[in-house]
Amino acid sequence: MKKKQIYIFANWKMYLDYDESNIFANRFSNVVKEISKEINVVVFPEALSLYTVGQVLGDVGVGVGAQNVYWLDKGGYTGEISAKMYKDAGCKYSLVGHSERRHIFNETNQEVRKKLEAILSKKMIPVLCVGETAKERKTGKADKIIEIQLRSALSGLTLNAKKEIIIAYEPVWAIGTGQACDADEAERMHALIAKIVKKMAIKANFKILYGGSVDSGNVSAYLIKKTINGVLVGGASAKFESWYKILKTAEKLNKK
Ligand code: PGA
User: In the predicted model, what is the mean pLDDT of residues 89-107?
Assistant: First the structure.
């Protein structure tokens, strides 16, 4: 099924170090011409290799993004990197509110909001990650949690219809566990997200991706769904062979 644009995003987390990231980027740059322009590929490397990875991949039409930002531009904030600094280093995108940030580093909905605003103010495209825990799902709270996360991050923003905002539905229980969310259920959650965002009446161009144990074997199940604009891939994006297979699968679907 041909869609307008397919988003295939790679969250490398802290899986690849400086050398590994650069070797991967060089290898990838040699095969990227096999992938059509309708497939929007963005890589999120760790902060230290981001600049050189961006130089290699920028030349072949692949974007780079930050995994996390701090909301203030400059100052005495030891260890932090601001949205402005990432922008200056060549980032067009940034993840925000990834579940590992929320759950391992105790990031709150309020902090996610501040980061999202900082990303927008630097004219970068945010990839807002939302998702429920296993317990929240079991107790029937998944839909409500998603609504709370979306509302706290987005309500009241004044943007314009052209401004791109990407939302990644990433159920916490599916991330890095090998237990991907069933594609029909992911589709239902995507429709829910679209409905909530519509109710908020924010003028923006929203895209919704699925993330959580996506691999070369299951990626097409998500990409063929109408409400799913693409995928955010973690573990499988940091291994060249599986990443390449994911892109080839997307390419095949794009050609159909
Ligand atoms: P995973 O991670 O593909 O390894 O489950 C996805 C993500 O965290 O974005």
Answer: 97
Which domains, and CATH codes, for the chain? 6-254 (3.20.20.70)
User: From the CA of 76, how far away is ligand 1's center (Å)?
Assistant: 32
User: Residues 200-230: pLDDT tens digits?
Assistant: 989 899 999 999 999 999 999 999 999 999 9
Run of H or E including 56: helix 50-58
pLDDT value at 165 more than 70: yes
Query: Helix (H) and strand (E) counts for the chain?
Result: 10, 8
User: Are 181 and 140 in contact, with CB atoms under 8 Å apart?
Assistant: no
pTM: 0.96
Ligand 1 center–CA 239 separation, angstroms: 13
Ligand 1: which residue has its CA nearest to atom 1? 234
**What does the pLDDT read at residue 4?**
74
Beta strands in 75-204 (DSSP E): 93-96, 125-130, 164-169
SS3 44: strand
Give residue for tokens 């929240």.
136
